[in-house]
Amino acid sequence: MGQITLKQVTKSFGNVEVIPSLDLEIGDGEFTVFVGPSGCGKSTLLRLIAGLEDISSGQILIDGQDATSVPPAKRGLAMVFQSYALYPHMSVRKNIAFPLRMAKLHKAEQDRRVEQAAAVLNLTDYLDRRPGQLSGGQRQRVAIGRAIVREPSAFLFDEPLSNLDAALRVGMRLEISELHERLKTTMIYVTHDQVEAMTMADKIVVLRAGNIEQVGSPLELYKNPRNQFVAGFIGSPKMNFIQGEEAAKYGAHTIGIRPEHIAVSETDGTWSGIVSVSEHLGSDTFFHIHDTGLADTITVRAGGEIGFRHGDRIHMTPREDVIHKFNENGLRFT
Amino acid sequence: MATQQSRSAARIMMAPAVFLLLGWMLIPLCMTLFFSFKKYLPLRGDSMANGLEWVGFANYVRFVSSSSFWPSIQTTLIIVGGVLVITIVLGIALAILLDQPMWGQGVVRILVIAPFFVMPTVSALVWKNMFMDPVNGILAHLWKFFGAEPIQWLSQASLPSLVMIVSWQWLPFATLILLTAIQSLDSEQLEAAEMDGAPVHKRFFFIVLPHLARAITIVTLIQTIFLLAIFAEIFVTTGGAFGTKTLSYLIFQRVLESQNVGLGSAGGVYAIILANIVAIFLMRIVGKNLDA
């Protein structure tokens, strides 16, 4: 079991309120991702759940039990840190066994669980090495191994992939997702990378300045963002926002259109502009278009075969059915 | 230092300093060695001008077979060991305390380091006259306040008194080194251990202490080298009486009080050998630290 409920949780550091009153429900077995720009309080929120910081007011329930004043070790949660936080003077085996040793588990049982975790994470060959002799990805796996052996009711990940290079990050992302499929344990994952959030999450919690902006499945957030912030944060490249006359035509203060929902043409379209940069990825091409009279830059995603160059005039047609309308307060309406 | 030219230029420019240092070190060393094989009693009319009598290893044998030799070795070891234990244990405790965020941290840290800036002679005099004086000392007053007979520190408890004085001098050094080591400990490691169910004392023994291992070794070795040579503290307080004669103090007595230069020089050579054994370990560890 691993059901976590936050009730009117607040957190202040001195006079600075980091998290104003916040309610959140995380279901058993859910992969929940906290995502938001840096400094939005997502790591703080995770540390509050872990018990590494005390909450200023409110209540944290784990499996229905009040855990507000329960020390971190007794909450039954395991955490994977951004810096991995491996113990450098211990071998991988001792690192993974550390929580078991602290729990005074039988030596044979310790060994059994460590071997099991090592097998799951492909670490069997490295058990006798020190963390300093491992690569970034292997260290990450050791940190996960140390979390797994405790058989916690929920895993907490604090930006675990931000220290890895891009290729490794994609690999570890898959491994963590697979791990979740296999263990079916609740996982809370903090990241500032919306791609990680979109690809891994069952449920995304978008945070800004300690406030929850929206909670929902990745596609829900993509299709029906509650406000302009969520619309701009979810999706890559970012949604284009257009204000003024063009927005007024739709009866809105601002309209938003995603780069993938704009068709391009050489000859005719609703809007037009000059291509300033075209990024060819092979599968797709991203055009950054200036001088449209709509916004500074309009980004458009087109197929990989389309070959506009810097300085070319380009015509664009948005898909009317996926234009998002926002009022003066940034809230979306239909 | 990439090219052949810049490398040889560097050598030429470093040469004067290297020669100066070598001379500075080698000339006294060679003279000590030379005297240690000679009979040299200035009060009996021996002098360099008259030529000194070659006595082989007689001085070495006599120094070791003297009844003061083994007690002096014992005293040296007690002082070095006692000071090391006290400074490292209290140093770790102080370092942990000073690492906590508190009001006036900067001032407190400077105050803690202050004893290190007091000259050994001065600090020994301060302790002797202001703390340990059996009539006017603060400790004597304290004892009398509780109705106890004041201790005559420097005669009744001479060795513990010396250990106390020297520890007071060296505690700041140990604290400083250990504090910087503690500050370099990743706080996420401690949090991870906390999540893993380690209570405070286990976090100290499993995480903090292993992290400090290197710093503790360095403190031990550097202090050992300096503590083997403490002199002023003994000279000012007990003058080598009441069982406080260390090896270096014994050498001083042989040369200056007994006016036996040859015998003292032989003792000096023993001291050099002892210090070098420690220095070899020190350089290996410090060198390893710089590599990593």
Shape of chain A: globular
Query: Most extensive chain contact?
Result: A-B, 22 and 18 residues
How large, in whole angstroms, is the Cα Rg of chain A? 23 Å
Helical stretch count of chain A?
Answer: 9
Ends apart, CA distance between termini of chain B: 22 Å
For the secondary structure, the number of strands of chain B is: 2
Largest sheet descriptor of chain A: 6 strands, mixed
- β-strand percent of chain B reads under 5%
Question: In CATH, what is the class of the largest domain in chain A?
Answer: Alpha Beta
What is the topology, as strand order, of the major beta sheet of chain A?
6-7-8-3-9-10
| Strand and helix order of chain B | HEEHHHHHHHHHHHH
CATH topology type of the domain at 67-259 in chain B: MetI-like fold
Give me the CATH superfamily of the largest domain in chain A: P-loop containing nucleotide triphosphate hydrolases
Please give a structural write-up.
The complex is a heterodimer of chains A (334) and B (292). With 334 residues, chain A is of the alpha+beta class. Chain A is built from nine helices and 19 strands. Chain A has two domains: 4-232, P-loop containing nucleotide triphosphate hydrolases (Rossmann fold, 3-Layer(aba) Sandwich); 237-333, Nucleic acid-binding proteins (OB fold (Dihydrolipoamide Acetyltransferase, E2P)), CATH 2.40.50. Chain A has helices spanning 42-50, 92-102, 107-120, 136-148, 166-183, 194-200, 218-223, 228-233, 245-249; strands at residues 4-13, 16-26, 31-35, 57-62, 65-66, 77-80, 154-158, 186-191, 203-208, 211-216, 240-243, 254-257, 262-265, 271-280, 284-290, 298-303, 313-318, 324-326, 332-333. In chain A, the strands form four sheets. Chain A has a six-stranded mixed β-sheet, with helices on both faces. A five-stranded antiparallel β-sheet of chain A has the order 13-17-14-15-16, with no helix packed on it. Chain A has a four-stranded antiparallel β-sheet with strand order 2-1-4-5, with helices on one face. In chain A, helix 2 (92-102) crosses helix 3 and helix 2 runs parallel beside helix 4. Chain A is globular, with a radius of gyration of 23 Å. Chain B has 292 residues and is mainly α. Chain B has helices at residues 4-36, 58-65, 69-99, 105-113, 120-131, 138-145, 153-156, 158-183, 187-195, 200-227, 232-237, 247-257, 261-291, and strands at 38-39, 53-54. Chain B has a domain at 67-259: Orthogonal Bundle (MetI-like fold), CATH 1.10.3720.10. In chain B, 74% of the residues lie in helices and 1% in strands. The A-B interface holds A 50, 52, 71-73, 77-79, 81-83, 85-89, 98-99, 102-103, 146, 150 and B 186, 188-189, 191-199, 202, 206-207, 210-211, 213. Chain B: It is a multi-pass membrane protein. Chain B: Keywords: Cell membrane, Membrane, Transmembrane, Transmembrane helix, Transport.
